[in-house]
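Shift notes (night). Ran TetR family transcriptional regulator while the centrifuge was going.
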Amino acid sequence: MSPRGVPVDPAERAGRILDAAARLLLRYGHDRTTINDIAREAGVAKGSVYAHWRSRDRLFLALLRREQAVLLTQIMERLNAAGRPADLELLLAESVRAYQRSPLVTAVLTRDTEILGGLARAAAEEGRPTGGITELLVTLRADGLVRTDRTLAEQVTVLSTVYLGYFVTAPLMPDEFRVADDAVPGLVAEAIWRALERPEPLAPDEVTAMDRAVRDHVVRALAGAEERLHAALTTEETA
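Came back to this:
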């Protein structure tokens, strides 16, 4: 119950707390954001925060899990709206686009300790929002849908360097070399795909196989993210 005797929806309250934590993390960073600050920003009592999460880092981890699930949902929606079979290039482009809209998940990707503190490494190791693209590459290599004259390690190196490189270097780029944000997803995806695509065009049945592999990959990643989110949103009172 609220102080005025109005029933409180725990899910709605948890959402407000997470929204407040997100704003404060981006504004002040991990070390300067306290439970008191979050409770005040969310308009709830400090005890209400602890009713959901017994520590600040558990709250922050729940927030990151929520952001990861939202990001993967956006990617799936964009794949469905593309009006064409999904492929690795499209997945990479939509993944970059989703990251651009999610500074907190980007902080996980780049292990930004100013925003996330010690959680930066823990969150990155727990499960990347892209759902482990290496697993998808293994599948595509096994099915002959990408080139195999390079080793998996070499391909992962190229993919990671180009993909992560954009998010790391973008804030450092001189103004004369800045590219419009909406042009970046296609540029990054094309650069990676050119390094991974095989010389021969995919046959129609292979296009279908690629589409299925990419969509299955995102579905599995989203299911895992939602499972972790559900566990993180279970209140300490009922855990």
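Residues 175 and 181 are 13 Å apart (CA to CA). The first helix runs from residue 10 to 28.
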